[in-house]
Amino acid sequence: MSGQNIAFLVVLTLALGFFSYNIQRLVSYLRLGKSENRLDEPGRRTWNLLTIGFAQTKILRERGAGLSHASVFWGFLVLTAGTAEILLHGVWPAFSFERFLPRPIWQLFMLSQELFAVVVLVAVSWLLHRRLVAPPKRLQGKEIHGTEAVIILCVIASLMLTIYTTGALEYAADERVRATHFGWFRPISSLLGTMLSGLPGRILHPAYDISYWAHALLVLGFLNFLPYSKHLHVVSSLINVWFSNTSGPGQAGVMRAMDLDAEVEQFGASDVDHLTWKNLLDGYSCTECGRCTAACPANITGKPLSPRKIVVDTRRRLMEKAPLMAGELDVPGSAAALLAADGGATALGNVLLDNYITEDELWACTSCRACVTECPVSIDQLDIINELRRGLVLNEGRFPEEVQPTFESLETNASPWAFSPADRAQWSEGLNIPTYAEAFAEGKRPDILFWVGCMGSFDDRAKKITVAFARILQAAKIDFAILGQEETCHGDPARRLGNEYLYQMLAKGAIETLDRYEVKTIVTFCPHCFHQMGNEFPQLGGSYEVIHHSTYIERLLNANLIPLNTEHGKHLTMTYHDSCYLGRYNDVYSAPRETLKRALPVLTLVEPARTESRGLCCGAGGGRMFVDEKVGKRINLERTEELVATGADTIAVACPFCMTMMTDGVAKLGKDVAVLDISEVVAGQLAPVHAHTTARELVAGD
Amino acid sequence: MKIAVCIKRVADMGARFQIGADGASVSDAGIKYDISDFDEWAVEAALQQNEKHGGGEVTVISLGPVAAQETIRKALAMGADRGVHLQSDVIPFDGFAIAQALAAELKDGGYDLIFFGRIAVDSAAGVTGAMVAELLGLPCVTAVSKLDIAGGTGTAERQVEGGVETLAFPLPAVCTIDQGLVTQARYPSLKGIMAAKKKPMDSKPAQLGALSVTVRTMELPPERSAGRIVGEGAAAVPELIRLLQTEAKVL
Amino acid sequence: MANNILVIAETRGGDVRKVALEVVTAARVLADGLGGEVHAMVFGGAGIGSVAPRLGGAGADAVLVVEHDGLALYNAEAVAATVAAQVTAGGYRAVLFGASAMGQDLAPRIGARLRVGVAADVVAVSVDGTDIVVRHPMNTNKVIATMVLAATPALVSVRPGAVSVGTSAKAGAIQAVSPAMDPAAGRVKVTGVTMGGGAKLDLAEAPVIVSGGRGLKAAENFSLVEDLAAAFGNAAVGATRAVTDDGWRPHSDQIGQTGRQVSPDLYVAVGISGAIQHIAGMRNSKTIVAINKDKDAPIFKVADYGIVGDAFEIVPALTAAVKAAKAQH
After folding, report:
1. Least reliable range by pLDDT among A224-228, A465-469, B7-11
2. Do residue B16 and residue A420 have CB atoms under 8 angstroms apart?
3. Which of A230, C80, C211, C320 lies deepest, with the highest CB count within 10 Å?
């Protein structure tokens, strides 16, 4: 073993040692977070890893940047094998994969190294250009580390270049090696080597050593830079994808269950140690690409929220707090010394909430899940926001003042709006719709519960949807009933607004009513009711089959149970606005569209620029319906403009909240565009015996 | 400061009321109850006073059925320190009978300030606070919409028709709190609700006085007639004016 | 004497307030029913006795004048002591007050001193045998209670505007009464009274609210709404959330779920479609008028009176008509 080999061994040991120290440190920081089991459903998790992680499916949602990143990623996967060889070679000069692999395989391996280095170089050049010359909006922002990104890209480029220079110098310097180790399978190194082969050995040999060391040091330097930078995602994101729940397992968008009877000092989160280790791992995995922020309706319209900042702040706060807690956590480094240092006490006094993330950011969230859907490494920004909202409301009673009437009304009236429960079923007067109480009194057990929802019960516009859907059910001769005055809010608005206590009170009450009437199947036209009762009630012991009316009507249409008058009519151009709680929360995209197409054969369905899983929120989700929108452009206006730009004469919705927001947006634009719920479109086409108003008349009547 | 706040459990005013079988009460079927708005503001005002001056204790007193303890708990969840429940199955309509019971409880409490809501939103009389002040021989300012306490004296503002009266008074004193003194009562956090469960609450029978005002009957006002479209365009204005003058009597 | 009725007649700036005459009228009903006299008691500074003829004109047999420089402003403690002494000495069957800021403050103090309850804020009084019977709207006017005051004296405060001033004039003979307590000895001092002048009516207190919505199309068109409010004279201006979020009006003007919850006597909704957000804040108004171009607008479902059409045409006409109606009174 030469002196150079010994020196390399020392450097390698130090570099790997320091890296593993840092990884150990970062892993120990995760222990600051609360425990949570993320080992369930390994099959599903591994599938996520393969698709989202290795196949880069979510990165590729954006074509240009996605392809560049995937190239670098796949390139690195391939090149890492070569890197291992190069590092071993430094300690043990005779080492080569050639010794273990059959020669054709080894040749292919060498070819892959050469070619993928080109792919990576091309991708990195494009990415550098994008960073430096034409940065998209999402790569701008206070919270992002732009210089760091440029350094990293330059390091990657240098790594690729030194692969070639090392190869070329080896080719030029050593004729013996040239004969055996070069050829068609190392085209670029060979080509470059040919150009250098005229140089004398006294230049070529040291130059080879320098190039080799440069490459090795860049690799080791890069490795050790990772734990200190946002490029930690290189290490953590695949792990993060495996542990993530945002694409399953579990139901998308379901808020964490919470045991309110637990004797705890802290409800929800105010600081990083109230989050789970997975939220903290999210922080490690964020590379600040900003796709979340670029998709965020609040951010797009000028509100203070940036989901990326939420995650970056979580990491920054963890990096500040965790070392101070080192004593307790058995982390290397002296917490006492850190505390004694300038700013140590301040750092200890800081909290994630207020010192990093402001209340206004949290309340700007519409819980639309666009950020979660876009994140290429399956970070759950919304989970952090939800936990912080809970922290605000449950610990401190802090929330926008205009929300208080909503909470109070939910308590007294079991509706977010202060309407008397006695008025809940006023819409059904004269429609001959039985309540469960009436049905039970006659010994009947209805097949289906039509859950009307608070909007459907009290909002005069939404009541028209209620009636339309009831007429469809009647036309299809469905055996259904309503709860009437016994229906109550299930508490979802309270839950989204952080008031878990009020939510559980209402949800448990609703479950009690449903169970008392032995309800099995529920249909509802409100996606919030649909999501809450179908996906979140099981946490509290309520298990029902809950079907959104879009899906239900589609089923009835497919079974030819709805007598439609589809023979004549004018040609309508319609656009459909996706509700977040139907689409991104529950993957219902085609049912409402298919329903519209079936109900109106003379229909052109046009799609807005942002649609389906990329659809823009109407602005009312996450309890925003009950919060004033004081900053920036109104989200509903942004969305309505986009929908109107399709040229549609009617906007179809499948959510009463969207209905309100779109109607207001159209009014603001002063456009003569009708906004209809899909059930109103269908009801308008009911065969004459039932029809009162057709969709066309509804359009014309406005 | 030691502050007492007298609060009342009242029906939610958003409800559709029905008259009870006796014809002289409001049926409580389907009715939810909560703290009277003005009393809630009074609790908030008391908490703010103590936060401003540091320390002190806020005692919440409520006369009513056992369920009034829930109302007291709510005030405790907001941040009050202890509760006193004066048990009475019915809350009479005679403010003086109630005032006597409250005065008996407040007499030896050593309170610097005693707050009431200006009125209870259900019975809408607004007499109890001033009566308690008289029974205890304390100075009293009613319908306070602005309050400053400093050095054992208070200055207050109260709305009178078309203007504002400014008053000065020595402590201890009784104030009835009007809308406007606080912008909004705080919403109890879950932490507050949990803490409230452990706060002390006495319950004792209310020493009501004899009744001099009694309810003979209760009735619902005539049903509001269904709305109607008066007409189209400016031509409908004269008819609207006529209806506002003769039917609605609001002009 | 035992069937006489004492009225505490409120004065301001040396003159009786209208509510005092209304209360005298209500007292007249009781006195006639019971066979007694109406004595109106006034408190004030020098020359306050000059109001006697007006009180007599409304039905006061006698006017008890308590004249003292210390009583120019309302002095709760001195007035309460004096009234209590008068009732104790005079043996009145009932004492009536206006349910004004002053009457609401005074009646319970006297009730406690005389150890009887108070029937507050009543809208009708009558005599049933020897009982005094009153009607009192409660539960935000959603329930009306009929109450009996068997004890003597019966203390009643009468809601301003509930009784029309009567015309059965009586002598109104002046009788001077001394304060039972030195007004200067009171512990609570009124240090000032600021009369409202041009102060903006608060939405919570305004008897009339005129509100504008998206239908007004632009911030500057709110002048239409302001003009109508000005024509009413006692109206405040409100707005929908869409309008306040767009910055056409300040957020403090917002009426609705996330704004103010109001219940005026008259609510005029101009260009407001009637989304639940807004309805939740104003549906308890006693009378609702809606003006909207869309006949299917949900606002018409809650409105008592609706006009379908262009607000830019209807509102100016309504403003003129309200001005004309007000001028007649």
Report:
1. A224-228
2. yes
3. C211
